[in-house]
Amino acid sequence: MTDPTPLDQPSGVDAPETVQVDAADTRSRAARSYRSLIEWAAVIVGALVVALLVKVFLIQAFYIPSESMLPTLMVRDRVLVNKLDADVSSIDRGDVIVFDRPGGPGADGISELIKRVIALPGETVEGADGRVKIDGEFIEEDYLPEGATTSTFGPETVPIGHVWVMGDNRNFSDDSRRFKFIPEEDIVGTAFVIIWPPGDISML
């Protein structure tokens, strides 16, 4: 004896309902996929916006193209620069800063330079006897390469709102001894860590 057909589902009419269910399920999956695509697109766009904001306002990576900061920074090193730390009041002697190149990009196309802050606003800086004097007193510079000497210059009094910068590799650095003082508005930020190459990752 065969099982009776349910009263609310006459035989021969179940196939169309199955097709309708399958079509509805397909539409539902398509809608979920579309929503998922939109969500991922929003995440990607959001991440790009955040990365752009970080680069513009917070932190930016810079590439070291020359030997002017040896041995602290090697050619092809990469550093991170804190762009919030760009006002003169937050900068100390010995900080390594990135700033707009005086006179604009050079023949090499480089538009920013990286040097060490040597003298602060109101201080008088001078090169004498192969060393640097601040307000008439020699300063210690343990970051310089062994045997390095500083050329004679000055004395120069740093204006308010400016700093005096020099490269650690004194004999191979184009710095304030030539282009004088760096105004606060030209300072991009303070370099605080070497991020490349991986074996040389360290704080500055």
Topology:
Blueprint (H helix, E strand, L loop, with lengths): L13 H45 E5 L14 E5 L13 E5 L11 E8 L4 E5 L2 E4 L2 E2 L14 E5 L4 E5 L9 H4 L2 E2 L3 E10 L5 E2 L1
Antiparallel strand pairs: 1-2, 2-11, 3-4, 3-11, 4-9, 5-6, 5-8, 6-7, 9-10, 11-12
Give me a quick take on this structure:
The chain has helices at 14-58, 176-179, and strands at residues 59-63, 78-82, 96-100, 112-119, 124-128, 131-134, 137-138, 153-157, 162-166, 182-183, 187-196, 202-203.
Which features would summarize this protein structure in a list?
elongated, 8-stranded antiparallel β-sheet, 2 domains, Umud Fragment, subunit A, 4-stranded antiparallel β-sheet, 12 strands, 204 residues, alpha+beta
Cα separation of the termini: 90 Å
Total helical elements: 2
**Average pLDDT reading:** 84
Listing every helix as H and every strand as E from the N terminus to the C terminus, the arrangement reads HEEEEEEEEEHEEE
What is the CATH superfamily of the largest domain?
Umud Fragment, subunit A
Overall helicity: 10-25%
Question: Cα-atom Rg, whole angstroms?
Answer: 32 Å
List low-confidence stretches. 1-11, 15-19, 49-57
Largest sheet: 8 strands, antiparallel
Strand percent estimate: 25-35%
- CATH topology heading of the largest domain: Umud Fragment, subunit A
| Outline | elongated
The structure class reads alpha+beta
Question: Under the CATH scheme, which architecture of the largest domain would be assigned?
Answer: Ribbon
CATH class annotation of the largest domain: Mainly Beta
Work out the number of β strands. 12
Number of domains: 2
